[in-house]
Each structure stands twice: as C-alpha cells, then as structure tokens.
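Protein: FBA domain-containing protein
Species: Chlorella ohadii
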Amino acid sequence: MQEVDLVAQLQLRGLTPAAACAFLDSCPTLLLEVYTAGRFDCPGEFEARLVLDSRSGPPPAAHFELEAWMGGAAALDSTGARSAMPCQWRRQAVMLEGYPPGVRRALVLLRGTERRFWSGHYGAKFAAPSLRFLPPPPRGS
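Structure follows.
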C-alpha cells in the first residue's frame, strides 16, 4: 500500500496549498496505471486498487481492518482479481472521476499471488505504477 498526499504532490509541482485544494475540489479524473505479469514459471493473480480519501490519520495496516476502513472512503475502484500469465506483461488501469469534493489523499494497493508454488507468496509482478490527473475533455465535446 502506498499513501499519496495529493496536496503535497501538487505543491511540488508549483501550486500553492489553496490552489491545490481548489484543484482537488474540482474533482479531476485520476488514473492509476500499472503493468502486471505472472512469474516466469507459473501463472498468478493480481488486483490493483485506487482509494480516494478525505479523512485524517493513517489508514490501518492490517488487511482485515483496511477492508472495513475503505468502506468510508470518498471513492474507490479496482481492477478486481485478474489472471497474470507467465512473462506476459499487460497494462492495467483504474480511473476515478465524479468523486465528492474534499479528497486530499490517494491510496494505491497492489496485491498479487501465484497459483502453483510457495503457498502464493511469490506471485504476480508489478512494474511502472503511475498515478496522474487527466486533463478535462475539451469544451463542446
């Protein structure tokens, strides 16, 4: 799990805190992209999840607590559980739009397992994750 302070990231790109909050309150589309593949010797399974939140305080670290905590998130979406075939890299994407104002952080969760060896502990691989805002569509389209 990776927690991203969206206000701080926008400040690093030149926005003031007030401008960053105003931008976030316009609810711009947010896109999570990541490449996934299975191990070379067996298939796997993965999930990529994007959670947007307006609450303060750290999210819980324990899996069972995190699942319940995500029920109170402002928005979330996921690829769902998908197959990851050996050595076949595929681009995965999760997009959130139309969420309520007040979001100030994002959580990126990448989970994977394999289906043949090691009780699932050495599963799907992830590469080049990116989280970015998409520009709004041109007016009149």
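Remarks: The radius of gyration is 17 Å.
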